[in-house]
Hints:
It is built from 5 helices and no strands. It is an all-alpha fold. It is elongated, with a radius of gyration of 20 Å. The chain binds fe (ii) ion. Fe (ii) ion binds next to helix 2.
Amino acid sequence: MSELRDSLIKELGDVYDAEQQLLKALPKMAQAASSPELKEALEGHLRETEEQVERLKEVFETLGVPVKSKPCKAMQGLIAEAEQGIKDGDAALIAMAQKIEHYEIASYGTLRSWASLLEEEDIADLLADTLDEEKGCDEQLTEIAESTANIEAAEDEAADMEDEEEEESAK
Ligand SMILES: [Fe+2]
């Protein structure tokens, strides 16, 4: 069990670093969003992320170990991709934000299970709170993606109709 406890502490350090990276990336992503709905969702998740960092500090404290951040290369990669595509429009932005959320869902899901196995129920509860927030954010992004796709499809259709009208009048 001490091996699992070590893994838990190590992975908590990983997710702690991942959240720190997100604190810096989310404002840029929110700024790049053109739909007010998406902007608001990303800003809302920034506030949640701030709380999640505090929650992780509480987890370390409950475990009786100092906060130890471990560079999360996966999040570095995800954020690098997000920054590259930041000007590709809302649909691309949502896709990148969802990849980030899915990574966090996987991390917190594992961490919560490990905490339960270690009979650290208080910690499992804290991690479950964060897991729920990540899932909520992901669902919200799916809803926005679907409405954005609808808007874009409608815009494309309108543009096609205009083209057709122009063609008609040119005849
Ligand atoms: Fe998070």
